[in-house]
Amino acid sequence: MQNKPQAEMTASPSKYPQGYFRPKPCRECGEVFQPQAPSHLSCSQACANRMLTGRYLQRNYRITLKQYEALRQKQAGLCAICDGEGFVMASHHKMKLVVDHCHASGHVRGLLCHNCNRALGLLKDSDEVLQRAINYLRTATASPLLLESRKA
Predict the structure, then answer these.
(1) What confidence score (pLDDT) does residue 151 get?
(2) Dihedral of the alpha carbons of 120, 125, 129, 133, in degrees to the nearest 10
(3) pLDDT tens by residue, 23-60
(4) Which region, left, alpha or beta, applies to residue 22 given φ > 0 means left and ψ of -120 to 50 means alpha?
(5) Which residues of the chain have pLDDT under 70?
(6) Which of 7, 35, 48, 117 sits CB 3.0–4.6 Å from 112 for a disulfide?
(7) Domain ranges in the chain?
(8) Pick from 45, 69, 65: which is nearest to 55 by CA?
(9) Dihedral Cα 69, 65, 91, 81, nearest 10 deg
(10) Contact yes or no for 126/91 (Cβ under 8 A)
């Protein structure tokens, strides 16, 4: 698995019998490139990122990168709940929208921003708890005790 950035993947060709690394096709796009090390599998950092993202999706959700991209296109690149564009959580993350899935069945439900995905998890993926939260928001008013404490 390639964890290093492309630029850091180098080896000394003189340590290998042929004295150089033969050009080979990129595993992501198929373009022939000159590798800098035997473990160099992709022609660019963009292709390396796509390969890693694809493996992550396959390993964790049993979907391909193409299936993820089709779902993202179907949702117009927006969160299925809040219609936001999402955001990248950390530098090693590549996707603004995360895969939401049913923990019981493993089936993918859609793509969500990190906040909406977290909210569902905090609400225990429960229709009942979510409905109680909705009812609370619709009926709750400011407590007279809280209003009086602000005046003091």
Answers:
(1) 65
(2) 20
(3) 999 999 999 999 888 888 999 999 999 999 999 999 99
(4) beta
(5) 1-4, 6-19, 146-152
(6) 117
(7) 1-61, 63-152
(8) 65
(9) 40
(10) no
